[in-house]
Amino acid sequence: MAEVLPYGRQSVDESDVAAVTAVLRGDWLTTGPAVERFEADLAAWTGAPAVAVTSGTAALHVAYAAAGVGQGDEVVCSPMTFVATAACAALRGARVVFADVEDETLTLDPAAVATTARTRVVAAVDYAGHPADYDALRRVQGDALLLADAAHSVGGTWRGRPVGSLADLTTFSFFPTKNLTTGEGGAVVSADPALLARARRFRNHGLVRDRAEQRFPDEGGWHQEVHEFGLNYRLPDVLCALGSSQLRRLPAFKARRAAVAERYRDGLADLPGLRLPTRRPEADPVWHLYAVRVLEGRRRALYDHLRAAGIGVQVNYIPAYWHPVFADLGYRRGLCPVAERFYAEQLSLPLFPDLVDADVDRVIAAVRAFFA
User: Fold this and answer.
1) What is the distance between the alpha carbons of residues 211 and 6, in angstroms, rounded to a whole number?
2) Among the options 92, 130, 152, 178, which is catalytic?
């Protein structure tokens, strides 16, 4: 049997290994200079200051905390996402209001967003790497903050502006299957100094070390205070060094992902049983997923066919409110028909920077054999 081909994986080379090794041989394993360097490197890509954290989920939790999301608030959220986008808002005590997605990009549909006096955040998701229409979302966000869950889209742009500069708060994930990796890790970026300060404080237990902000500043040089609860979401220097190294490789990652997506398009465009992903002219995405739509109810059959052939396809994602945890809170299927229709057809083909043309052609051949 042929080697199993994963749907996504990290790309680590000797420059990445050297960056991590240098930290291991130094004095700082965490809370040191590699963290500040990674945050500065990320800010150069995103156009806004960054706070490094331990995962994409931690980034969402930190962002909602920075936004002041709490009991009685509402958070409007796309359902076409990993469950963490909604779960982190619920964990803060908010009521999640799911709004449907656009059929073309599978990003939050501005026409479906309805805010109230309780809406604290509108959370968009850059599905598969395609940025949401943040200009249109700005027009409907009302008094709420706009959050971009950009776990799929670091390195992309919308109308020439980088992902990270499009919303009030942006969150990233650096899991191994993402566009760059720190092993586990994430980040929150924001151009708003107050939001950024709250994010930095929350990711470090809520500690206040600035004497000018302390209530008892004369206690002694050791003194630190907690004014609001936070958690330990600090990303260590070892992983931040890997992140900085990976950011230097991000242009090559982006170009290779685009080449793989184009090869899939050339090899599959004539199949009537598939609908291929598109992009809007305003977007320069990083192709994180190559999400095809399998028509006429054949998604499960194609999934099983490709898995049997050693091709690690995946489904991204079950609509978030279909998870039993949300069903138990009273959410019902049928809320977002566009998202649900897409879920019934969606299949992610393998896509990662180290995927060679021969592997892409193997996937294309296996898909074509299914429809033959």
Assistant:
1) 51
2) 178
